[in-house]
TrEMBL record:
Domain HTH lysR-type: 2-59
Position of the signal peptide: none
Database matches in PROSITE patterns: HTH_LYSR (PS50931)
A family per Pfam: LysR_substrate
Source organism: Halomonas gemina
Matches recorded under InterPro entries: LysR_HTH_N, LysR_subst-bd, WH-like_DNA-bd_sf, WH_DNA-bd_sf
Keyword set includes DNA-binding: yes
Alphabetized UniProt keyword annotations: DNA-binding, Transcription, Transcription regulation
The protein's name: LysR family transcriptional regulator
Protein family according to the UniProt entry: Belongs to the LysR transcriptional regulatory family.
């Protein structure tokens, strides 16, 4: 008969290497420890330990049983915490976002995990379509995407906004469309849409990105400013990308009169309630961004939806 206590005793015995220490840690007697191990061996039908004097050596079946037991109890804890949607300090967080969002959000969440060891984090970097598919398939509880999506099995709502930045090489001396055309555009996944939105709002004579020489492309947004720093062209990125880039001192942002923001959206399976631990993480991140951008005063009006 399956008994989880036998597996727990076996784990402790392997970790301590001693029946005496196992009995002390689990507040049992040594005969009780021996009985649990014997019952587990009978249940599995295999010897788990090779007793060489006072030394305990795992058999091959013992090694496999130990690995299985560790996985069993880890999954049990994750499952137990996942049932507690009211917990702020424990449970598994399974989420995904594009790289441009995760550059700052993922380190923030890891910091929260350090302060709340009961949290576990599974964070994936992916494109919008992949994130939506994984949320639908139950592989993520929450997705953060840069474009709203409509699907009968999903709930999608605006969450947070970040300014778009026109970024040029540090020695760039121009300020008009003709100057930007002269150095060309460095693109990335979604980059042209960002460029169109920002340039259209700030340059009345802007018509199309087809007028700009395309100087390169990367599917990794965190790398796009490397090309700009080398003087190969300009780009338009979220402020998060600029602030986290190792090349931020080798490029500069052109000041523009009309701000344009990228709106981030939260996507979950329809009808599900967001656990409180997610709510606190998301609110905490937005609060940190406000402090970083505006200081600790009241600041300008919030952009978050």
């Amino acid at each position: 008969m399956f008994n989880a206590r036998y597996f727990r005793t076996f784990i402790t015995l392997v970790e301590t290497g001693s029946f005496t220490r196992t009995a002390h840690r689990l507040e049992m007697t040594q005969p009780g420890v021996s009985q649990h191990v014997r019952k587990l061996e009978e249940y599995l039908g295999k010897p788990l330990l090779d007793r060489q004097g006072r030394r305990l050596v795992l058999t091959e079946s013992g090694r496999r049983a130990y690995d299985y037991a560790l996985k069993l109890f880890a999954e049990h804890e994750q499952f137990r915490h996942s049932l507690d949607n009211d917990s702020l300090e424990s449970g598994e967080c399974r989420l995904a976002s594009p790289g441009s969002v995760g550059l700052m959000l993922y380190p923030f969440i890891l910091g929260q995990q350090q302060m709340q060891p009961g949290l576990t984090v599974s964070y994936s970097f992916a494109f919008n379509a992949e994130i939506v598919a994984d949320v639908l398939g139950g592989r993520h509880d929450l997705g953060i995407i840069t474009e709203a999506v409509r699907h009968p099995d999903l709930d999608c709502k605006a969450w947070h906004q970040e300014p778009l930045c026109l970024v040029v090489p540090a020695d760039f001396a121009g300020n008009g469309l003709a100057d930007l055309m002269g150095i060309g555009f460095i693109s990335y996944s979604g980059g042209e849409d960002h460029a169109v939105a920002l340039l259209k709002a700030n340059f009345p004579d802007f018509r199309s990105m087809s007028h700009f020489p395309r100087q390169g492309f990367t599917n990794e947004v965190s790398m796009v400013l490397d090309a700009v720093a080398r003087g190969l062209g300009f780009t338009v990125v979220s402020r998060v990308v600029l602030e986290t880039s190792p090349w931020q001192r080798q490029v500069k942002e052109l000041s523009l009169p009309q701000p344009v923001h990228e709106t981030l959206h939260l996507v979950m399976r329809a009808g599900e309630q967001m656990p409180r631990r997610y709510v606190r993480l998301l609110e905490g991140y937005c609060e940190q961004r406000r402090h970083e951008r505006f200081g600790f005063g009241e600041g300008p009006e919030r952009h978050e939806a």
